[in-house]
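INFO batch 0412 | record 1 of 1 | parsing
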Amino acid sequence: MKENDQVISEVANAKNQSVLTSLQTLADDIGCDLTKGPSAKTTKMLIHKTESQKFRRSIGTLQLKAKKTLPHTLLLSHDTAAFVGLTHDSLASVFRKALSEEPRRKWERICIFYVSDSLMDNFKEWRKESVEGDQDDTCAGLIQKKRASQEDLDILLRDKAGELCFYEITHHCSFFGSFFGWGSPGGYIHVSPSIWGVGVKMCPSNGYRWELGARPSHEFLAYRKGLENLLSSENPFAMPL
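INFO prediction complete | emitting tokens
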């Protein structure tokens, strides 16, 4: 017990020293002498600077997370998958990575939804000044990526899925998403909203899992209902390609 207490004490001392070092660094930055005790004004300044640093770190983390790539392990973990996206220009590479690990892998059902050409202008990245020669984010560039993606995925997956379906969303697409095994516990849904003038790959995202032995969350059920609406043959939002 004494040995455990000593270890805990050493860990606590190390953590306290780290906090003191951080505070001293902040105090030095604003010209404060901690040996004389901080005034109320100085304390507020220290708290404000600490919170500002935390905020900047969170912004950096958001930017890293925003550059999202679908984990191929999700494809290996579920037999059904559906994707709602703008061009799906990176989806084939994820499937290829999954198939490189399990060459004989086959899926029961894969549904891929694209945004129609008529809606493309709503999702292109907006810049105050256009960059000469940059065609990737123009409407024509997005449509070209979409066509190439569909051809690539069709060739790659036509013998790898019991049911492979391509659709085009013609009305109201406010978010994009990836859906895995959504009909049973263990299912996972990853969604990302569209933001005015922001490239879709830089928009923030959220994931929702239906945990085993638990009821699915309200968010999971709502997004699943959205997908089920898209898959309905009577829906007014999408049509088969």
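INFO post-check: The chain has a mean pLDDT of 78.
INFO record closed
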